[in-house]
Amino acid sequence: MAVTIYNEEGNSRGFNWVTKTNINNSQLQYLLKVDEKNISSLDWSNAITVDGVSYDYYDNYRAWRAEVLDLEYGETYYYRVGSINNDSFSKIGSLYINDGLESLEFIHVSDMQGTTKSHYDMWLKTINVMSSNFKNIDVMLLSGDLADSMGLQSKANNEMGWLLNGANNYLKDLVLTPAAGNHDTANNIFYAHFNVNLSNDQDYKWGMYYNYKIGDTEVIVLNTNDDLNNNFRLNSKQVNWFGEVLKNSTAKWKIVVIHEALISTGKHMNDRSSRYIREDLMPLISEYHVDLVLSGHDHVYSRSNPYLWDNEEGTMSNQGIEMTLINDNNHLKNYYNTPGTFYVTQNATTGVEGKRREPSKQTSEPEWFDLATSTINDKYMSYQPDAPTFGHLEIKNNKLTYSSYYVNNHDELVLFDTFDVIKDVDSNPKVNYLNELIFKAFLQADSDVIAEIDEQLTLLTAVEKDDVMLLTNYYQLRADYQSKISASRVVNKIDKLLLTADIDTSDIKEARTLYSVLSDEAKYYVTNYFILVKLEIEVGMYRRQVSD
Questions:
Q1: SS3 of the chain: helix, strand, coil, percent, to 5
Q2: If DSSP codes are grouped into helix, strand and coil, which group holds residue 212?
Q3: Other C-beta atoms within 10 Å of 131: how many?
């Protein structure tokens, strides 16, 4: 079962579910959430019922489709699919219809493909960690290769089932926005599992292209399998459609989801199809100010600096943009006022070992490549984390934030890259001044700057604080700085002990007392702690500490 946005309107929904062919009638039922009653005790006698339209796409398998239009923004609906005649229904799903005016949250995943159920158990593990950390997701963007077995219909059908059924507890409450990958080419496998309104008289045998708008955000999904001339070039009909959608879009934010990457450091970066895609799409992407292009295919992680298209020179990085540095290594996090397009290639979300790829070396990349360096871990963003990864995208208060995480062996999320794009920068002078102070603190933190920031924060309302960039990062910076200051007192005390000719045991006790009251974070910065232990041993005072 899968739920999509059906047409260009953000309050439409397409429902798709699969049964065996012995099921001859099936329905969608939905009703408006009116109170907080237990979901299991809902009265479905008042539900709106929509008969499913069936489509037999493979031996003994039948796909069912239903659509609902003009749902009320700001409301939550419950739904289920199944057979009224047999009184047999799916688990109940819950869908909140977000108008996107205050905020939108997306998850970006890619290349979940596997050939066995155990491979998709890795996908489920990632989903479980993801769902426990991000509870208000509106849409999941899937940039291709949901299945693995390409033209093998029976295997691809199983893989789609493992993908959607295994994670149904989470996915049933989400809208899915899938792009087809080169492994999703079993005939009609995409059409049989996702229900979107197909415009432009397109061929849907190997995927689909479509678009929708929520609030001030336009999402455009492209199909890199749409190569009717078998010449590795996208069908011109799709390219022309893409240009018209961009030309007519009034959205502030424009996001493209596509499988094959335009800028990536994986092994496909110079494939003929990738070169053609760059030539055909990047001029349109640049002309109409697309903010973000999300892709997969290469099974590595890469993130570009913003790109423009020059009609004479072709692809080029936008070096003249207005942006703000947050540290002295020239690594950028905040970008202002439509500086160009960011290209993010997400690593394989399952993290199955056989599906991981090594990124290119910088020396083997084209000269025009300009990739970012993470402000989180100081790594060049041509990266293989050797773990399942995904992206989290939030649009709120004139700011788009994209953050990438991997799931470690302890089922913990680890942030390894993030950046912001800000439009219509706040004109509030208090907020602007505070933003400047915070950037200054990242460049060189000292007690005066931190004290000034803390004082300015007391002058802002809660709403104004929402417009302060990097505020969460600042709180962590302040905590780290205070830990270092506290630790420095102990470091100095221990250093003085070494310079004392006749060390008094009371001085050693004082150093130990100072150390013991530090936070765990501050203790990390006491780099000469081993000297204190050595001195305690020499005078017979040492007792093993819990923290040692």
A1: 30, 25, 45
A2: strand
A3: 17
Tokens representing 428? 């509030």
Q: Give, as one character, the DSSP assignment of residue 46.
A: G
Euclidean distance between CA atoms 130 and 31, whole angstroms: 28
pLDDT score, position 321? 38
Provide CB contacts within 8 A for 192, sequence distance 6+.
Answer: 16, 18, 55, 57, 58, 61, 63
Mean pLDDT, 10 residues at a time, the chain of 548 residues:
96 96 94 81 91 92 96 96 92 95 95 88 90 93 91 88 91 95 90 93 92 97 81 87 96 95 84 85 89 93 80 53 38 57 89 65 70 79 87 91 91 89 71 75 77 89 79 82 89 86 83 90 89 86 57
What pLDDT shows up at residue 254? 96
Angle between helices 471-499 and 529-538 (to 10 degrees): 30
CB 177 within 8 A of CB 139: yes
CA distance 174 to 16: 13
Q: What domains lie within the chain, and their CATH numbers?
A: 98-422 (3.60.21.10), 429-469 (no CATH), 478-538 (no CATH)
Residue with tokens 């232990």: 533
The overall pTM is greater than 0.90 = no
For tokens 């013991």, the residue is 516
Would you say 203 and 228 are in contact if contact means Cβ atoms under 8 Å apart?
Answer: yes
377 phi and psi angles, rounded to 5 deg? -125, 10
Please give the pLDDT value at position 469. Answer: 67
For the chain, the distance separating the N- and C-terminal CA atoms, rounded to the nearest angstrom, is 53
For residue 325, list its beta bridge partners.
332
Cα gap 195→179, rounded to integer Å: 12
Q: Are 71 and 79 in contact, with CB atoms under 8 Å apart?
A: no
* Nearest-angstrom CA–CA distance, 473 and 467: 14
Cross-strand bridge partners of residue 417? 404
